[in-house]
Amino acid sequence: MTSSRIAIAGAGLGGLACARVLQLHGLDVTVFEQEPSAGARPQGGTLDMHADTGQVALRTAGLHERFRELARPEGQQMRALDARTAAVVRDELPAEDDEFRPEIDRGQLRGILLDSLSPGTVRWGRPVEEVTTTGDGARLSFAEGVTADYDLVVGADGAWSRVRRALTGVLPEYSGVTFVEFGLDDADRRHPALATLTGQGTAMAKIGGQALFAQRNSNGHIRCYAIFYAPEEWHADLGFADTDAVRANLLERYAGWHPDLLRFLTDHDGGFTHRPLYVLPVPHAWTHTPGLTLLGDAAHLMPPLGVGANLALLDGTELGTALATARSLGEAVRKYETSMLPRSIETAKACAEGLGHLLGDDVHPVAA
């Protein structure tokens, strides 16, 4: 393909994977990110990288060996606990050589991708305010009236994508499920009973439309989630800055759960973070539009059931490969969209069904 001006909005996993593949093929790309720096905020919890999606993408990007250096195969352990007794009712341990979906911290994986890019690829502190088409390309608008034209703008800017607004105009919808996130630091030393209950991977308990998840991260950290059905504005009069008030609310919601499990709520370190679960309608698709395309959550925001990051990486590397190998920009984007859209629609349908199982009363562990 002849040289084209390519911009990626968003320095998440999918956008960075796309940029990495483009640079491997000698193509120029610029990534615009609203965050002021790579370490401006925590990047979230642990991710399971599937051998048939995320790991395929990392191999395409030439980063699989670096990933394996940081991955935690033992993190594949899945443990189900009884909400009333805290007894372990299922404990699925990975085989010694099982590396089908090892865990890695999202921040570590993002760091691998960032380190692989040429200096200056990511323009930090440059949020895209508006995207418009120009007939055969797209224009990005930034603060203070600054604009820049590109042959292709890739929307890798997540749930509330500005690029998606220009392409489909579709906004995410509240799913009816909310997550409240909190954590345990240096858990093996400071919270040994809860560390033992969690195991080396994910432990979960659920009953009556409520769940508690605890997931091992690196460096002894356990990230936890209280998950339940709630109206979108359930917290309006609560105020998440008031840790004691949030804790009291959660303890009331989880009344009747075993005291050993409630200790996740009472003994955690720091505050609580509200993470309401939004999803894009299924199917979400678009007519091919010169100058624009989407990947990752911008294209197919779905419940967090262990596939989102994997699909974002696969989207990014497949798009990058198509752009590097096709005869024209239009041919490359069409090829990518023809493959990505059916795959994401089918996966989104499965995840929509899986969300009900996440809070069901069965004891099958589901990755959060």
TrEMBL record:
Keywords for this protein: Cytoplasm, FAD, Flavoprotein, Monooxygenase, NADP, Nucleotide-binding, Oxidoreductase
GO MF term list: FAD binding; monooxygenase activity
The UniProt record lists the keyword Nucleotide-binding: yes
Subcellular location: Cytoplasm
InterPro entries: FAD-bd, FAD/NAD-bd_sf, TetX_monooxygenase
Span of domain FAD-binding: 6-169, 292-326
Positions contributing to FAD binding: 48, 106, 297
Keyword Zinc-finger carried by entry: no
Pfam families associated with the record: FAD_binding_3 (PF01494)
Gene3D superfamilies listed in its UniProt record: FAD/NAD(P)-binding domain
Annotated residues for binding of NADPH: 41
Catalyzed chemical reaction(s): a tetracycline + NADPH + O2 + H(+) = an 11a-hydroxytetracycline + NADP(+) + H2O
Source organism superkingdom: Bacteria
GO biological process entries: response to antibiotic
Cofactors required: FAD
GO-annotated cellular components: cytoplasm
EC number assigned by the record: 1.14.13.-
Family: Belongs to the aromatic-ring hydroxylase family. TetX subfamily.
Function noted in UniProt: An FAD-requiring monooxygenase active on some tetracycline antibiotic derivatives, which leads to their inactivation. Hydroxylates carbon 11a of tetracycline and some analogs.
Domain text: Consists of an N-terminal FAD-binding domain with a Rossman fold and a C-terminal substrate-binding domain.
Subunit structure: Monomer.
PANTHER family: FAD DEPENDENT OXIDOREDUCTASE DOMAIN-CONTAINING PROTEIN, MONOOXYGENASE ASQM-RELATED
Protein name, UniProt field: Flavin-dependent monooxygenase
Organism of provenance: Amycolatopsis balhimycina DSM 5908
